[in-house]
Design a protein that fits this description.
Number of strands: 5
Number of helices: 26
Strand order of the largest sheet: 1-2-3
Shape: globular
Strand content: under 5%
Helix content: 55-70%
Radius of gyration: 26 Å
Distance between the termini: 30 Å
């Protein structure tokens, strides 16, 4: 039970106990309710829509829990409100709410709502059981069958089924199901599902057009801005993505993830005041939440270092070190804490020791677990070292090594360029390095078209070994597979490409703190 009114909360809790609920927990704030739900599964959640003086509503909490899949499908979620406007009821339906309860309500009304909602859970139990056992194929088949036969709760089942199909990377089938729902009942979440399917299939422009239409019709539908932000990131339009996430955050000011996205992209845009404000709010609201990404604190450390905020920097480093100690198997967190310590060392006037440790980091650039986030953080650090006596020649060498490895597309190259915003020439080095990668790819493709496929594969492999660039390594494999009948010794070449791919080509999940579509490569896994 999540309700800011202590009296209302007490009365409802007593009703629940009378109904036979043996284990009941309550919270007076959304942030406390989220923490409870992150650490334990509940059969029933009753949540107030409005919280006086709070920026986050019950609707915001529900959407975040559903979006991040932190609420089991078997859990009944009932919203309580004194305002039954059309907009609120529609919002609730979009978030897959189980029921709506209007104040004032009697014990009997509460009982009937709970009973009706649990009935739907029982009817769809086979689907939920399949999901809980991770039998996604069976879950998808059950959902499609219920949808096609228009059995009880078919629309709800269609929504679940389409999400499962997306997870299974059966994008065409997911899109067909979303399209069928749109045709049967034009709901925004189905249109959004179409856009997500298009993005997952690499149809970026089609996804953008779908989203532009949806946002035009439903400007308050915050989830559509999330997907639009991903599209803009895929296109390398960081400033557009930042503006999009700011709109989403303004619609849902209590959403931790959207604040993180705004703060992170504001950091890369060079907007220190906004970045600091958003990232500090993220920490204040989300420091006990699993949704908090430690990258936010890493960026805050850079911002406080730039502002010569000695106390703030020390606090940021303390947080980074505590995370690294708590998750002591995480290389990612170890690197962040180490970079934070370099910033503290430099801020304390120990220039030689700080620069020496920064140089040691560069030895890790070729390591398999050194991902793009680590590269961006290293570049953010090195772009600040010129004031400590590091010469341009040394800085250029580090920048080009990182760029040659991680500049796999426009989006990644623009993020790397944004990471060195403190040093204008470094941005030129990154873009030049990206152009060099594209030139190697273009030359190889031309060789393949001229009938010199083996030379093309060898060229790509050589550059792949030298740089660790995932695009070149994957191209070597693709060209080899396409022309294998015409290449002597193709098996050895493909084995070499496979070994390099195993070392350097990890599935991407995030870039600049924003979750990407699941089709991209380049080792951009950022979360702990």
């Amino acid at each position: 039970m999540i309700d800011g009114n202590a009296t209302s909360r007490s009365v409802t809790l007593q009703h629940l106990r009378d109904f036979g609920f043996g284990h009941v927990k309550s919270a007076g704030r959304v942030i406390d309710g989220r923490e409870l739900l992150e650490h334990r599964h509940y059969d029933l959640v009753l949540c107030e829509y409005d919280f006086e003086g709070g920026k986050e509503s019950g609707q915001d909490l529900l959407e975040e829990l559903r979006r991040e899949r932190m609420l089991p499908h078997s859990t009944v979620f009932i919203m309580i409100t004194g305002d039954a406007t059309y907009q609120r009821v529609t919002e609730a339906a979009e978030a897959a709410l189980d029921s709506y309860l209007i104040k004032p309500y009697s014990a009997n009304t509460l009982f009937e709502r709970v009973k009706e909602a649990r009935q739907r859970k029982r009817v769809l139990k086979a689907i939920f059981d399949a999901l809980e056992s991770r039998d996604m194929e069976r879950a998808a088949a059950l959902c499609q069958e219920r949808f096609e036969q228009r059995e009880l709760y078919w629309l709800y089942a269609a929504r679940i089924g389409a999400e499962v199909l997306l997870d299974l990377k059966r994008h065409d089938e997911a899109k067909q199901l979303f399209d069928a729902v749109v045709a049967a009942k034009a709901v925004p979440w189905a249109r959004l599902g179409v856009a997500r399917s298009q993005l997952a299939d690499g149809e970026v422009m089609q996804a953008r057009r779908t989203l532009e239409s949806l946002i035009g019709d439903q400007p308050q539908y915050a989830d559509s801005y999330d997907v639009m932000g991903k599209v803009q990131m895929e296109q390398g339009n960081l400033e557009e993505a930042r503006a999009t996430y700011r709109v989403a955050a303004s619609i849902t000011p209590g959403c931790i993830l959207r604040m993180q996205h705004c703060g992170t992209l504001s950091f890369y845009a060079g907007d220190a005041p906004v970045a600091t404000q958003m990232l500090e709010r993220t920490w204040s609201m989300g420091n006990k939440s699993r949704l908090f990404d430690v990258l936010s604190m890493m960026l805050l450390a850079f911002l406080r270092f730039d502002a010569q905020d000695t106390k703030g920097l020390a606090l940021a480093q303390d947080v980074l070190q505590r995370f690294a100690d708590t998750y002591d198997q995480s290389t990612r967190l170890r690197r962040m804490a180490a970079i934070g310590q370099v910033l503290v060392t430099l801020n304390d006037g120990q220039t030689a020791a700080g620069v020496l440790r920064a140089r040691e980091f560069t030895e890790e650039i070729v390591e398999p677990d050194f991902d793009m986030e680590a590269g961006a953080n290293i570049l953010s650090l090195w772009s600040r070292l010129d004031r400590y006596g590091v010469l341009d020649d040394e800085l250029e060498g580090v920048v080009r090594r990182v760029a040659h490895r991680f500049a796999v597309n426009k989006a990644s190259s623009e993020v790397l360029a944004a990471a060195v915003r403190n040093h204008a020439r470094a941005q030129d080095w990154i873009r030049a390095s990206y152009a060099e990668v594209m030139k190697v790819a273009e030359d190889a493709m031309n060789n393949a078209l001229r009938g010199q496929a083996k030379a093309a594969v060898e060229q790509l492999l050589n550059h792949g070994r030298e740089t660790g660039n995932a695009k070149l390594i994957e191209m070597a494999s693709l060209v080899g597979q396409r022309h294998r009948e015409r290449i002597d010794g193709i098996d050895a070449l493909l084995n070499a490409a496979g070994a390099l791919a195993h070392r350097y080509c990890r599935p991407a999940s995030h870039i600049a703190g924003v979750r990407r579509s699941n089709r991209s490569a380049g080792g951009l896994v950022l979360r702990r």
